[in-house]
Give the backbone structure.
Amino acid sequence: MSDRLLDPFPDYDFIPDKDALLLHMLRPLPSYLRINPIYISEEDAVEAISAEGISLKRVAEVPLFYKADWDKGLGHTLSYKRGLFYPQALSSAIPCLALQPTAQCLILDMCAAPGGKTTYLAALTEDKGLIVANDRNIRRLTALNANIKRMGLTSIVVSSISGEAFPLYSRFDRVLVDAPCSGEGKYRIAPSGDVLSKSAGRANLPAIQKGLIVRSFDALAPNGVMVYSTCTINPLENEAVVAYLLKKRENAKIEQWSSPIASYQGLTAYRNHIFGEELRYAHRYYPHKIDSVGFFVAKISKSG
Amino acid sequence: MTQWDSSWPKFLSQDERDGLFACLGREFGIPATILSPYELLKTSRLYYLLRHHKKIDALRPLKIQNAGLPAIRIMKRHLKPTTEFIRSFGQFFTKRLIIVGSKALMTIATKKTIELSELTGLSDLSLLDKGRAIDIRSISSLETGFYLIKCREIFWGSVFIRDNILISYFSKNINKTVLSMDICNNRLIC
């Protein structure tokens, strides 16, 4: 069957079971949601959401996440309007879990809008940490602010500064860089054969990502932890960007980390690009292996 | 120590905090201890709650858009709790909390101004006062000010009451939500 499909990734021979991925791309991704435990307990929120007819199945490996079976838009439900949940791809939880935020941490979410990961970081710290949610696009802040308010979070400060120029007078214990990317992990194939969810932008994404990762690392306190993530499987937006940081900053090191859901090692080379052995500690998530959006996650530490 | 960037709302001093807590205690019966883990910040008409954190001073020079959760709006001489504040802290209000039935909730979402007697004709209305629920019909006149509305264990928003006239301050979004609900079948489902 895959012979008849247009392969959107003809150069990616590193994808495991690529035929299975192409078949997987023919159907919509399942819906997941994350419970917001700020207003009421997780159990009570699950009960209220289920009472609206949404069938929930807990994802044991990922705190607060549930697979949701619902034929209408989750955003139209009363529970959503009450701020009891956030519709969120399962894999987008992974960068937040890799960051291991605690209530004692000063946290920077460099590209925060629309706020899915920011609000998850707040939930993981029981709304007791201190999070700077930054996004340079002031128009995207409307959604970020609305989500922070809807979920009743009190531990978040919002800024709108270009990531590449983020001021360095405050050093953060944790920094999340969920960089703008080509979004290949979200691609779906329509019955017509067209690739859906394809980004229309023509920006030089690797250049932007490299600027962001270096500045974010510089904003990190000694012994701090940074996570670089994207929702693309393009090595030039992932491993190449992390390799660039390792070349630019000697005190940057990729940390080994155990993923709660199925992942593959980062690539050490791709075509004529050599990234280095360290990159195998990064994690790749393929849509057909996790039944969610494809992701890349690298956990990076800064020596003192 | 570095000054706070001018983009930050003003942090309330201890005296100002005490004054606001006393006011919230007097009007809504909120114990001051509930809000003690938070910094209170103020713009001209709004108080924000920001969780206290020992590293907050590191952000003094940062130019920001906003900080914390909008909590209490200043409306002339009255304090109006925001919808977000009500959702988080409604459970701690021991005064000025009105518990209504579904039909009364629907009426509040439909009309901006309502005679209190119109609501009492639709369903039972209880007022929580010092933790005790009282039938509103037994009270000749309610104190002027903002009241919370609770229906089916959900905090929906606030109303202003003066001379037994109720003015709804439900947000457009809440009104839309209430009006789209399946009230006829006695369920709260959109």
User: Anything to note?
Assistant: Chain B has two domains: 5-89, 97-189.
